[in-house]
Amino acid sequence: MPEGAVHQSLPVIDVSPLMDASESGIRAVAVEIHAACTGPGFFYIRGHGVPDAVVAGARDQAARFFHLAPEVKANTKANQMHRGWHAMGGAVMEGAKKADLKEFYSMGLDLPLDHPVVAAGQKLRGPNQWPAEVPGLRPAMEAYYAEMMRVGGLLMKAIAVSLDLPRDFFAPHYTLPLQRTQAIFYPPQAPDDTDGFGVAPHTDFGCITLLWQDGSGGLEVRERQTGQWIPAPPLPGTFVINVGDLLGRWSNDRFASTPHRVVNRSGHERMSIATFHDPNFDAPIDPRALGATEPRYAPTTSGGHILECFDKAFSYRKKD
Ligand SMILES: O=C(O)CCC(=O)C(=O)O
Ligand SMILES: [Fe+2]
Q1: In this predicted structure, what is the pLDDT of residue 8?
Q2: What are the φ/ψ torsions at residue 107 (nearest 5 degrees)?
Q3: Facing residues of 5 across strands?
Q4: d(CA 242, CA 159)
Q5: For residue 213, which ligand has an atom nearest its CA?
Q6: Binding site membership of 91 for ligand 1 (Cβ less than 6 Å)
Q7: If you average pLDDT over residues 257-264, what whole number do you get?
Q8: Is the CB of 262 under 6 A from ligand 1?
Q9: Rg for the chain, CA atoms, rounded
Q10: Which atom of ligand 1 is nearest to the CA of 276?
């Protein structure tokens, strides 16, 4: 099979024209993004300018963290702000029979406890939790997070243009974003485990997801037209981008979030780093603001929607 045949239905988009910000460059990328977001809902990007060293740093430091003893990792156990270590068994996707076979470490925008939105009690806000045993994790994840913020911002410009909006339409909604970066660790799935998933079929909660995956493979996307699961294999130097529920709702279903899942059949551990590039907590999510004349959804807020999804999916939110 020629290289590329496997992922022929998932386009690879060169986003480098977004960096010089010329009108024609943004338009050209916007056309490709529009086709991808109204089609498979998934695409790869290259030409994003994220240094290899930033990706390798985050991966290496996160791997060190995951290899610590569970009782050490538990010192940064996920809190109500969704920051820290989520042990195996804590995430159940909607409709799934079993918990996901994964553990993950989650960080977001680092706000001190005396920051006005934290002091005002806005949920999911506050400082990150860092493990003393892996001092390199913080600088590595912060550098990676900043790069995802940059690339996410570029993509949202092209998405705005692709939806016939001014290119900076989304920018005011990303001044204190709910963007979260999660390093995810999947143990090898036992060959006799036929109904387990690294991540059970789900759609992502937020606007767009930027995913780095290692070389193991295992990510699968449900093809819209056929309902078949197709692989989204690792392509060196790319990120996988997909539309989440919040952008589906905001765009009045012009863009749709596509179900995907992970099964780690590689026989060894798998790692990925998912970044959910989501707007400010109180960003109004109203299809009419994106041009819908017959809105299918009532207005909500970014934070309201994400909290609702978290409450359903994560056991740590149900305990205290
Ligand atoms: O690890 C992956 O490849 C995908 C992870 C994912 O779908 C998620 O965390 O929402
Ligand atoms: Fe996902």
Answers
A1: 56
A2: -140, 160
A3: none
A4: 12
A5: 1
A6: no
A7: 96
A8: yes
A9: 19
A10: 10
Query: 3 pLDDT exceeds 80?
Result: no
**Residue written as token pair 């804590």:** 90
Confidence of residue 312 (pLDDT cuts 50, 70, 90): confident
How remote is the CA of residue 90 from the centroid of ligand 2, in Å? 15
- 188 contacts: CB under 8 Å, gap ≥ 6: 264, 265, 266, 267, 268, 269, 270
Q: How far is the CA of 260 from the centre of ligand 2 (A)?
A: 6
CA of 21 to the centre of ligand 1 (A): 30
The strand pair at 12-14 and 199-202 is best described as unpaired
pTM, to two decimals: 0.96
Residue 211 beta carbon below 6 angstroms from any ligand 1 atom: yes
Locate the ligand 1 atom nearest the alpha carbon of residue 274 and give its number.
9
Q: Is the pLDDT of residue 230 over 50?
A: yes
Nearest CA to ligand 1 atom 9: 274
Angle (CA) 211 10 27, round 5°: 85
Q: Which atom of ligand 1 is nearest to the CA of 204?
A: 10
- From the CA of 218, give the closest atom in ligand 1: 3
Distance CA 65, CA 73 (A): 7
Structural domain boundaries in the chain: 3-318
User: Quick one: fold of 3-318?
Assistant: Jelly Rolls (2.60.120)
Dist CA 57 CA 54 (whole Å): 5
Instruction: Encode pLDDT of 68-95 as tens digits.
Output: 999 999 999 999 999 999 999 988 998 8
ipTM above 0.90, yes or no: yes
User: Which residue's alpha carbon is nearest to atom 3 within ligand 1?
Assistant: 219
> Would the pLDDT of 186 be above 90?
yes
Q: 93 CB less than 6 Å from ligand 1?
A: no
C-beta separation of 309 from 204 below 8 A: no
Relative to beta strand 284-285, strand 12-14 is unpaired
